[in-house]
């Protein structure tokens, strides 16, 4: 429960810090309502809609209501998928409002020592430190390779965790050995005609747990005619921090990343994780109040592209023959890739270019799968409800491969396949891995 | 001041829970705040309790209880209305219709559909079109709005010119009355003169008489084909003249929409569909029907537009492009909101022959009061949406905006028009209603209200103003 002094502080900070013009920009037309997964899933509860959440933020800023736990809950239940943004005719920057509001609430939260330590551990000590990410995911790799995972499953150790976490453990990809990760070079030369020099934003999770997908991404870029650099000193994008009300830490990470990529002097900065790219592209907004950084941030943002976009721009699918055995394939959008990066045609163009496969559009592909960063861990019930509805639509497509473009979505899809007991029939794959598998003469 | 003492409020809450179930009664602060507004700027008030009944019988029981306890009732669908009709100005309860959202029957023999009030308008429209049937009323918010809200407001839309508005498609209703009775009006009947036309009394009554709990709607065959053109103008009055000329040539297109340059720019900024932003006005014109007739009409309309100095007339090349244009037009109001913090929209409507005069009058009023007014709307049916782009925090400007709108209302009535074509009276136009109806007309309305809702619990504070506005200009 919030104490009355906490409520006062939060109210004051809402008044002082929330972007009031942006709050006013919402004219409450409700055009966002049908796009909001939590509004739909809760049977049209306005407090779980973007319009309702903005009204709550404005209500606190106006002094019309006091903040309370219900209000915090309403903001917590938001997936942050930002599907409300492209459909908003007024152009309200909902994602920014949400981040600011969560930052204020987080700052004023009384937490048990345990939670504080855990948050500090995750946000300060783990995600910003790539060496530690490698160690932790290395441990997962050891756990998988040693047979411990089988033992743990057998003795029911995982049953101690929430059901979603326990299933999640089953679907984690096989993590390569740390030594393998360490040995990867930082420069790769183009194949064929040279078209561009790109720097890969490797991502903290992508470059550990999804190391092979990063390798596939590098391979595709080379084939498309790119020299590929992997700048040293790059760090986690900061999205996880930003979405959890730790914006200051995001800013530090942003600055370090900007510096790391300036040194690379590439034509483009390429990502293969929709969630990261949507946060990276907001760096100029994140650093808008720091004059010495805002221009540099703009420059960084201007170079950013998703892997599927650059491949299409460089005619990869026209210059390379792609083929897979006869099967149906479908695509689940990464919300952030679609709603923020505005990249949604390109993955479909690439997948449709694969000979032998029949691309079936997934109904509701543009709505969130429930992964939403760490949402499936902090709001497991809502996440599972959304996921199960999603998997019903996937089943309607009869697809053998469901493709995604973001690690969170990928894990969520794997989880969904596992929950639907379809792991023998359906594969969930990152688009880069699908394309590499489809390359003919490899 | 809360309407009820805490003790009475707790009792009311317990009684509501008894009727609608614990999970459907909410008196938390955030639960109430999110139903304190609708899409009308500058109106906000918290209800004391929010309740979501599951059946018509529960609705009736709640109304009976509210009648006995003098509790104001504000019925709410999706809260998209534009005259503050869903804003609980005097506290009391907000009655959410979200559970009453079923489509009950599609009658292919009588060409009707029977629905509950919480059904989303577009769901109805999409469902019947699969059967080659057509439900024409299409308010811009149809993807969000509920049919109950459309009925209560008698909503119009982009297809009003040829097909009319919501009231033209209502055959029968079930209504919960403030005394707790449930009545049925009308039937699946083309002809029915048994008694007063109560169906059409409740349609457009803005929640001030009862709660519609079920409706039977008329469907028509789906038109075979459709074509869309855009006529571009460098002179906004020329666009207005084109509208009158098209009608005078006995052409009745489905849609005949007007957008001025501000609106075009704002919409293009949102939708990115390649609207020409360098022209002063656009007419978006749609015709439907058998292909030969559509081709002939579109050809003739294009000629009329060129004759009235349209600088260009373009044909949408595909059904998708036509749909994009209509969707973009539907976003106009909200898109304009990106230009200034507050967007105040009005709904003045004039006979179609007076469109050019009205467009001119709006421009003069904007000039006179130094306010920024963008205009778009359903020009073909004389229903314009002059929209004031302003900032609610600027008190001086807000006063000028109010005066400007008063003068626009005055002008509309002078031209034989009305205060509101499709958005409703609500709070915003209540002080002006007497200008349109006269004192005797208002008395008839009051008499009806008194007969059906003697305790005044239904949507209090709406339609009937506490104090009527004095006319600023005398009618010549």
Automatic annotation (TrEMBL), chain A:
User: If you read the UniProt record, what top EC class would you report for this enzyme, in one word?
Assistant: oxidoreductase
Q: Is Chaperone included in the keywords of this UniProt record?
A: no
Recorded catalytic activity of this chain's protein: (R)-lactate + A = pyruvate + AH2; glycolate + A = glyoxylate + AH2
Q: Which cofactor does this sequence's record say it needs?
A: [4Fe-4S] cluster
Report the transmembrane regions from the record: none
Q: Which InterPro entries match?
A: 4Fe4S_Fe-S-bd, 4Fe4S_Fe_S_CS, Cys_rich_dom, Glc_ox_4Fe-4S, Helical_ferredxn
Q: Superkingdom of the source?
A: Bacteria
According to the record, how does the cofactor bind? Binds 2 [4Fe-4S] clusters.
Question: Which named protein is this?
Answer: Glycolate oxidase iron-sulfur subunit
From TrEMBL, chain B:
Q: Which UniProt keywords apply?
A: FAD, Flavoprotein, Oxidoreductase
**GO molecular-function term, one example from the UniProt record:** (S)-2-hydroxy-acid oxidase activity
In this chain the FAD-binding PCMH-type domain maps to 43-222
Q: Does the keyword Oxidoreductase apply?
A: yes
State the name under which the record lists this protein: Glycolate oxidase
Query: To which protein family does this belong?
Result: Belongs to the FAD-binding oxidoreductase/transferase type 4 family.
GO CC terms, sorted: glycolate oxidase complex
Q: Which InterPro entries would you find in this protein's record?
A: FAD-bd_oxidored_4_C, FAD-bd_PCMH, FAD-bd_PCMH-like_sf, FAD-bd_PCMH_sub2, FAD-linked_Oxase-like_C, FAD-linked_OxidoTrans_Type4, GlcD, Oxid_FAD_bind_N
Q: Name the cofactor(s).
A: FAD
* Organism whose genome encodes this protein: Sporolactobacillus nakayamae
What NCBIfam families does the annotation carry?
Answer: glcD (TIGR00387)
